[in-house]
Automatic annotation (TrEMBL):
<keyword id="KW-0812">Transmembrane</keyword>
<feature type="domain" description="Major facilitator superfamily (MFS) profile">
    <location>
        <begin position="18"/>
        <end position="427"/>
    </location>
</feature>
<feature type="transmembrane region" description="Helical">
    <location>
        <begin position="83"/>
        <end position="102"/>
    </location>
</feature>
<dbReference type="InterPro" id="IPR020846">
    <property type="entry name" value="MFS_dom"/>
</dbReference>
<feature type="transmembrane region" description="Helical">
    <location>
        <begin position="343"/>
        <end position="366"/>
    </location>
</feature>
<feature type="transmembrane region" description="Helical">
    <location>
        <begin position="181"/>
        <end position="201"/>
    </location>
</feature>
<feature type="transmembrane region" description="Helical">
    <location>
        <begin position="108"/>
        <end position="136"/>
    </location>
</feature>
<dbReference type="InterPro" id="IPR050375">
    <property type="entry name" value="MFS_TsgA-like"/>
</dbReference>
<dbReference type="InterPro" id="IPR036259">
    <property type="entry name" value="MFS_trans_sf"/>
</dbReference>
<feature type="transmembrane region" description="Helical">
    <location>
        <begin position="318"/>
        <end position="337"/>
    </location>
</feature>
<feature type="transmembrane region" description="Helical">
    <location>
        <begin position="229"/>
        <end position="255"/>
    </location>
</feature>
<feature type="transmembrane region" description="Helical">
    <location>
        <begin position="16"/>
        <end position="36"/>
    </location>
</feature>
<protein>
    <submittedName>
        <fullName>FHS family L-fucose permease-like MFS transporter</fullName>
    </submittedName>
</protein>
<keyword id="KW-0472">Membrane</keyword>
<keyword id="KW-1003">Cell membrane</keyword>
<feature type="transmembrane region" description="Helical">
    <location>
        <begin position="291"/>
        <end position="311"/>
    </location>
</feature>
<feature type="transmembrane region" description="Helical">
    <location>
        <begin position="148"/>
        <end position="169"/>
    </location>
</feature>
Length: 438
């Protein structure tokens, strides 16, 4: 499929311009998510809370998806994509404002409130922008377009811990005890969203009609009676659960389980990455955050980019099967190995998580036609899995150690593997038009 064809709708219109504008929303989404993943270790230090209690950050973030996803889908169904996106942007501005005020008061509750409101806005964006990108162009290019947009989110993921870690995490063996550094990154989000909102008001956003939605395929059954959709909801719940757990405790794992380094090895790294203790060198919190940014999220973005190529050439469920299998094996290494092999496996897991969300999303809504908007809000609602997993992993880590906590993502990837392997059979069994490319 050539680039031009990817963004040309069946009526002959070139949707590249609006696609680029929508993709900027994914950049905000990625940056905000990346910022969330440095907060666990930061608040463990500044507020002196346990790993399990720090996971309330993810709970506040993802429980918002649960409550807001369906209203967002209904609003998009009734008033259109543009209205829903505008509401989302306004909520993001309110959430970041609340979070900035929390840096002054220093109360955990106010931080969690800001995160909840911010996540509500991101839920509107994710619920509406994902299906919009899928139908914004040629029929066969839906998964590829979604991967391109989410690769932009991957770029935001890199900048999140990179910028946030610079302002709030320690570059020495000592831990930070102040929340002041959080103000500037969230001010940046506020200003960026304000600019996007102004651009949106001045831009004509094409509305996809129900007839155009039916290009994806059509079926008369309610979507909740379709096994390929129902299991996609469960798979997405578990994927986001596993992903969130890995993202949230990456810094904890690297700081606690990375091996001590000699001077010769430490000298090869930036000075802010290591600190000396007992004649050896350990990774600093800021070093771990930059490893998360460049290593983990860097591979995540590369995976999204190469994943778009893979999904344009290989069936989506086949790629998902391979990636889920590899990540299951990597989780085993993280749990049972130690030192460099485990740290490398942790970083590599980001690459093989990269296509899972858009792949499961695409497989789940295949053949739903005019029901796509409502069904997509259900799948986005399943992101609430991210509220549960960090708390479980944190509790296990508090009781045992951080490595043992990774048994939870392992369970998630095994289920995703089973779903991907059985998807074709589930889809054919419903007598849906199998010409849909998934």
């Amino acid at each position: 499929m050539n680039k031009k064809g990817l963004f040309i709708s069946p009526d002959g219109n070139n949707q590249l311009k609006i696609f680029c504008i929508i993709s900027m929303l994914f950049l905000v989404l990625g940056f905000s998510t990346g910022m969330i993943d440095i907060l666990n270790k930061h608040f463990q230090n500044t507020l002196e809370i346990t790993k399990a209690k720090s996971a309330l950050i993810q709970f506040a973030n993802y429980i918002s998806y649960f409550f807001v996803a369906i209203p967002a889908g209904i609003l998009a169904q009734r008033y259109g994509y543009k209205s829903g996106i505008v509401v989302g942007l306004v909520l993001i501005m309110c959430g970041t404002s609340t979070f900035m005020l929390a840096t002054v008061h220093g109360e955990y509750f106010f931080f969690l409130t800001g995160i909840f409101i911010l996540a509500a806005g991101l839920t509107f964006i994710e619920t509406i922008a994902n299906p919009y990108v899928i139908v914004l162009g040629s029929k066969d290019g839906g998964a590829a377009r979604l991967n391109i947009s989410q690769s932009i989110a991957g770029l935001g993921l890199i900048f999140g811990p990179l910028i946030g870690g610079h302002f709030v995490l320690s570059a020495t063996g000592e831990v930070s005890k102040t929340n002041d550094g959080l103000f500037i990154p969230y001010l940046g989000i506020f200003l960026a969203v304000t600019l996007i909102l102004l651009v949106f008001f001045r831009t004509k956003v094409p509305e996809v009609t129900p007839a155009a939605d039916e290009r994806i395929g059509a079926i008369d059954k309610p979507f909740w009676q379709l096994p390929h959709f129902v299991f996609a909801v469960i798979a997405q719940f578990l994927y986001v659960a596993g992903q969130t757990g890995i993202f949230s405790f990456f810094i904890n794992y690297v700081v606690e389980h990375s091996p001590a380094m000699t001077l010769s090895l430490a000298s090869m790294l930036p000075s802010t990455w290591t600190y000396s203790t007992g004649g050896f060198y350990q990774i600093t919190e800021r070093g771990a955050s930059q490893m998360l940014a460049f290593g983990g999220f860097g591979l995540f973005m590369i995976g999204r980019l190469t994943g778009g190529i893979l999904l344009s050439k290989i069936k989506t469920h086949v790629v998902l099967s391979a990636f889920a299998l590899i990540n299951s094996l990597l989780m085993v290494i993280i749990i049972y190995a130690d030192g460099y092999p485990a740290t490398i496996a942790l970083v590599l897991s980001f690459y093989f998580m990269s296509i899972m969300f858009p792949a499961i999303f695409s497989l789940g809504i295949a053949g739903l036609g005019g029901q796509t908007k409502k069904a997509s809000s259900i799948i986005v609602m399943s992101i609430v899995g991210g509220a549960v997993m960090p708390m479980l992993m944190g509790a296990i880590a508090d009781h045992y150690n951080m490595a043992v906590g990774f048994i939870m993502p392992l369970i998630c990837f095994i289920f995703i593997l089973c779903y991907a392997l059985s998807w074709r059979k589930l889809y054919r069994g419903q007598n849906i038009d199998v010409a849909v490319r998934s």
